[in-house]
Amino acid sequence: MKVSKIDHIGIAVSSINESLKLYRDALGLEFTGIEEMPERGQNVAFIKAGESKLELLEATSDESAIAKHIAKRGQGIQHMALHVDNIEEAISELSEKGYRLLSDQPEIGAGGTKIVFMHPKSANGVLLELIEGDH
Fold first, then answer.
1. In this structure, are residues 113 and 44 in contact, taking their beta carbons and an 8 Å threshold?
2. Whole-angstrom distance, CA of residue 63 vs CA of residue 55
3. Dihedral through CA 2, CA 113, CA 21, CA 29, nearest 10?
């Protein structure tokens, strides 16, 4: 497994449009659009910040992970994503080393990427996402 970069930092927000006032309008970062993800109960928007991105996550369902995050912790950083060259290899290697993943198979993320999350108890309290592909 090879980690090539921090792909993005996921930020749970109550409103993408309200958040754009800071990231796009005040900070001048490039907004690339909103993707609806009804299967996850959320909308996502990516903001380019140099070679990395910020992912704004807005709940569209009270049952979504984002809604639950905001209800428990408020708005803020929800996860950090690392780009890997081969997600299946990453899952296999981490599982063999005893790390707890939230799935044993990659799921489809924003932009058709392959993703898997590592349980925060296995990642020093951080919800860590591994991602393969570009969005």
1. no
2. 20
3. 50
Q: What is the pLDDT of residues 28-68, one digit of tens each?
A: 999 999 999 999 999 999 999 998 999 999 999 999 999 99
Q: Which of 18, 19, 69 is nearest to 40 (CA)?
A: 69
Structural tokens at position 103: 């799935």
Strands 114-118 vs 107-108: parallel, antiparallel or unpaired = antiparallel
Please name the amino acid found at residue 93: E
β-bridge pairing 114-118 and 128-132: antiparallel
In this structure, which amino acid lies at residue 38? P
Closest CA to 118 of 70, 84, 68, 76: 84
Neighbours of 69 (CB within 10 A): 20
